[in-house]
Amino acid sequence: VHDMGIRFLDSILLLLTAVTVVLLVTVVGVIMVIALLTIPAAIAGQFTTTLRGMMAFASLLAVAFTTLGLAVSYGPDLPAGATTIVLAGLAYLVALGLKAVVSRVRRHRL
Fold it and tell me: Which residue among 20, 55, 93, 95 has its CA within the 20 to 30 Å range from the CA of 47?
C-alpha cells in the first residue's frame, strides 16, 4: 500500500513536469524551458539535502531569475530570455564557487 502511494505521487510529479514543459515551450522556447528547469535545480542541489527542500529552493530561484532577468533587461532593452539565462548561469557558477569555498573551510577546520 505504501509503495502505491509513492508510485502515484511519482506519476503525478512526472505528469506535471511534462505538462509544464509542453505549455512553456510554446510560450518561451526550448532553451529557456531547459535552463529554468535545470539551473535552479542544480543550484538547489548544492545546498539542500532533501527533495522537498530542493524543490522549494529551486522554485524560488526560478522565480528570482525570471524577475531579475526581466528587471535587468528592461532598462537597456536587452532580450529578457537571454538575460535571464545568463544571470542563472552566473548564479550557478557563483554557487559552485561558494560550495568549493565552504568545503575547503570545513576540511581545514577538521
Answer: 20
Q: Where are the beta strands (DSSP E) in the chain?
A: none
Taking the complete model, does pTM exceed 0.90, yes or no? no
Contact of 81 with 88, CB cutoff 8 Å: no
Record the cell numbers describing residue 100, joined without a space: 568549493
**Grid cell for residue 34:** 531547459
DSSP one-letter code for 50: S
41, 45, 46, 49 alpha-carbon torsion, rounded to 10°: 150
Amino acid at 4: M
Tell me the CA distances in angstroms from 107 to 16, 89, 99, 101, 110, one per residue in order.
40, 27, 12, 10, 5
